[in-house]
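Sharing a chain and its predicted structure for anyone who wants a worked example. Both blocks are below, sequence first, tokens second.
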Amino acid sequence: MSKDQMTPLERLQAYGQGNAIDRLPCVPIVGNTAARVIGVKVSQLPTNGKLLAEAQIAAYRRFGYDIIRIFTDLYGQAEAMGAVIRYPEDETAYLELPAITDVSQIDSLKPVDPYRDGNLPHHLEAMKIAVAEVGKEVVVTGALTCPFTNASFLIGAENLTRLVAKKPEAVHRLCQLSLETCLNYAKAIIDTGCTPSLTDPMSSSTIISPKQFKEFSFPYLKQLIDYIHSRGKAVTLHICGKTAKVWELMAEAGADCISIDNAASLSEAKTKVGHKLRLMGNVKPSEIMLQGSPADVRLGVLSGVKEAYDNPKGYIVASGCSLPTETPFANIDAMLDAVREIGYPITQEKLNHLEQRWLK
């Protein structure tokens, strides 16, 4: 298998400038699989910045992908604001109790100080270490949960969706508080030398309507992205599930790249918004990356490349969402090996030839 001829940073910079590259950028979105790389428990990562950095740096070096994402779970900001998060010994954390149970308690919530509250200081420590150690060769990002999704963790998802219809002013108050937390955390992430990587699963059209997205998520998302842009950083935005009806709004909010879930279509996204922003995705994280074979992964990569390699604003091969913790190392290797074999520049003829060979 061919070796990389460029560092990830060189590759992304050249690709963005329209210059020659050795292969497409590739990002299997490694979260807690990094714990497996260094043989520690998942629960050890959120509370130990040095260990979290070690795991993510080791995973990057082991697989050779193009962007490091400092991430353990979605709840760091909400926990710092009072939500109760449960940390199973060796599984990803989950929300046990929201910070409040009733709108009458909203005024008790305060925006976070990311240098002091919850586990955020540990994540910032991990980002700082990663930037110092490998930041000259690879982009290091810090996961940031967007305002509407964070608001759902403050009062509970079911409560929030009910309030959207019954008490919209309360939802706006929660989103404004979440925005202030997001801005504080985004500033701290950027100050470490990292780039915020935005995740907003509750804004999915699977959960709220496009009209509700425009009213309750979009205004706060745009303010957050505007701030990140003001600091000279590009924005990648991931919203889980079905998102086709809000792609235009995601672009209008200022996203430079949207991460497409496997529930959505790359070719449709290319047609609708590919002239406005870069696309990233969307190999199935569970069905293919976790449960499939390396051959399945190669074909999954090829399918995405065939759909989006000619996207006007560019394309990054990636999993459709964060990889499950137990994703086989061989499948992550297969993703990178596939993009290396596809190489660059890409032609439809070459893709057809590879498909015929990989199907055998």
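Comments welcome. The chain has a mean pLDDT of 97.
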